Amino acid sequence: MRVGVHINRFDHPGGGGALGAELAATGAAAEAAGVSRLSVMDHYFQMEFNGGAEDPMLEAYTTLGFLAANTSTVKLGALVTGVTYRHPGLLAKIVTTLDVLSGGRAWLGIGAAWYDREHAGLGVPYPAVAERFERLEETLRITLQMWDPSDNGPFEGRHYQLAETLCVPAPVSAPHPEILIGGEGEKKTLRLVARYGDACNLFASSPESVRHKLEVLRGHCETEGRDYDAITKTITYMGGAAGEGDVEAFLADIAGYGKLGIETVILGPTVGNPVGWIEGFVGQVAPRLAELD
Q1: How far apart are CA 80 and CA 91, in angstroms?
Q2: Residue 55 has what DSSP assignment?
Q3: How far is CA 287 from CA 145, 240, 249, 250, 261, in A?
Q4: Which partner for 180 in 4, 45, 109, 221 could form a disulfide, CB atoms 3.0-4.6 Å apart?
């Protein structure tokens, strides 16, 4: 099992001027600890349950570009981009640029979006949930078409119309950056994973819950004619023993997920010192997780 680190707070006591140095140090610490992927949130405002909208928040892809320049091995992406935040053609171009400039280390994390306050706050349209899922599917189709060098033609959808799907230069990743679809809705989200995704991301609520979600995903794969084993399974584990820095309790808790075929566990610091948390906790658990079957 591999380890990812998710940067979810930007509240350095030194203020905004201290964030660049902290992010660079976080990237260096993550690579030294053997972290496989590094992610940031894609939000305009900080989430209500993580400090509130008045807390600091950086734009995701600018931040990922900065991290790309300050790292060399870790894969980089947003966990996850809301489909409403950027036009699909622009999003594909942004992720492609990150992939090219990072030497093939970008992945696209995407979901249906949920944080209505930030949309209203900045005047971004926030359709009803059914339409957001329609837009999510069209965005996945557009992205894959833009990453297909044999098809630069138009795209005609219900919500999006593109006259040309040019994307030059093409991504460095082969065949394209990994598409990770976040969420665990059984009727829509997991069906989209089976149809379009390279990876899924589930919440580490319990091994029993994750087992059930994976069974649903397997069923969708059978319906779609997709190889279930070809999809990378990831979980997000926030707080708990990881937040407390309890190595043994965390390893005991995570073992049940490894038996389900979970390949990556994504952890997020709940302390104000991400570098210290990575060096003191992640650096200990990463090599031991790599030994899990």
Answers
A1: 12
A2: S
A3: 38, 20, 16, 13, 18
A4: 109
Other C-beta atoms within 10 Å of 256: how many?
Answer: 15
Q: Is 20 in a helix, a strand, or coil?
A: helix
Task: Please give the Cα distance from 227 to 225 (Å, whole number).
Answer: 7
CB-count exposure of residue 122 (10 Å: 0-12, 13-18, 19+): exposed
DSSP code for 114: -
Residue 241's pLDDT is 83
- Concatenating the DSSP letter of every residue in 199-213 gives EEEEE-S-HHHHHHH
Please give the single-letter amino acid code of residue 197. G
Nearest to 113 by CA among 176, 36, 60: 60
Answer whether the bond into residue 149 is a cis peptide, omega within 30°.
Answer: no
pLDDT tens digit string along 149-185?
Answer: 999 999 999 999 999 999 999 999 999 999 999 999 9
Structure tokens at 245: 């820095």
Residue-level pLDDT at 104: 98
Enumerate the β-bridge partners of residue 20: none
If one counts every other C-beta atom within 10 angstroms of the C-beta of residue 32, the result is 12
Three-state secondary structure call for residue 18? helix
Closest to 117 measured CA to CA, from 50, 42, 47, 40 = 47
Supply angle C-alpha 132, 138, 144, rounded to 5. 135
- Long-range contact list for 156-164, CB < 8 A, 24+ apart? 158/134, 159/131, 159/134, 159/135, 160/87, 160/88, 160/89, 160/135, 162/88, 162/89
Instruction: Respond yes or no on whether the N-terminal peptide bond of residue 282 is cis (omega within 30° of 0).
Output: no
Residues 6+ apart with CB under 8 A from 262: 1, 210, 233, 234, 235
Question: What is the model's pTM?
Answer: 0.95
